[in-house]
Design goal:
heterodimer, A: mainly beta, Immunoglobulin-like, 7-stranded mixed sheet, 4-stranded antiparallel sheet, globular, B: mainly beta, 60% strand
Chain lengths: 113, 112
């Protein structure tokens, strides 16, 4: 199993600013995943973050808007840049999956005003 | 993008009744997993079924998988008010990416 500490748990930000979300895992993992959950919707994968290499982004998501860092095997950050109200969502990090269950952080509820 | 769709989108039942949710997906999978989410917070893993399995049980949960129809169902028996949550299926694609792709979700309300 894995325990993920994600912060902040929520934030209200002004449009045009940036927010960095942090995820700390209690064990070393190769892959970390970042998801976005828009209000009332399901989870959409933003990118896969591997330590020592550039993140791999899904269609519709770009590095300039969602830069990701993965400095070591237990930590990752996702930045939401130049925010607009459309970026208001819950952002979640995840590890695991593969042949066993995935583990999720508690999410960051972002409101852009 | 979503791998699959779930139906119904919303389901309201009385305590003690059974709840059935269905999930359809599009591409070949390694396994299919079901998760629960309470009030938009973190997800809790419920059950995993592999592509070579057809049925699996865990407590009050029963999951079936039909790979020929690319569909799965989750049955919650003898539901309780505490089962009220959103339920998502998620598929692990049959490639090396380890990506978990989520369905659209079912919002279950269990009335006491």
């Amino acid at each position: 199993s894995a325990v993920i500490s994600q912060k902040p748990s929520r934030d209200i930000c002004q449009r045009g600013t940036s927010l960095t979300i942090q995820c700390q895992v209690d064990s070393q993992v190769t892959m970390m995943f970042w998801y976005r959950q828009q209000p009332g919707q399901s989870l959409t994968l933003i990118a896969t973050a591997n330590q020592g290499s550039e993140a791999t982004y899904e269609s519709g998501f770009v590095i300039d808007k969602f830069p990701i860092s993965r400095p070591n095997l237990t930590f990752s950050t996702l930045t939401v840049s130049n925010m607009s109200p459309e970026d208001s969502s819950i952002y979640l990090c995840s590890v695991g999956a593969g042949k066993t269950e995935a583990f999720f952080g508690q999410g960051t509820r972002l409101t852009v005003v | 993008s979503q791998q699959g769709e779930e139906d119904p989108q919303a389901l309201s039942i009385q305590e003690g009744e059974n709840a059935t949710m269905n999930c359809s997906y599009k591409t070949s999978i390694n396994n299919l997993q079901w998760y629960r989410q309470n009030s938009g917070r973190g997800l809790v893993h419920l059950i995993l079924i592999r592509s070579n399995e057809r049925e699996k049980h865990s407590g009050r949960l029963r999951v079936t998988l039909d790979t020929s129809k690319k569909s799965s169902s989750l049955l919650i028996t003898a539901s309780r008010a505490a089962d009220t949550a959103s339920y998502f299926c998620a598929t692990l694609l049959r490639d090396a990416t380890n990506k978990l792709i989520f369905g659209t979700g079912t919002l279950l309300a269990v009335q006491p």
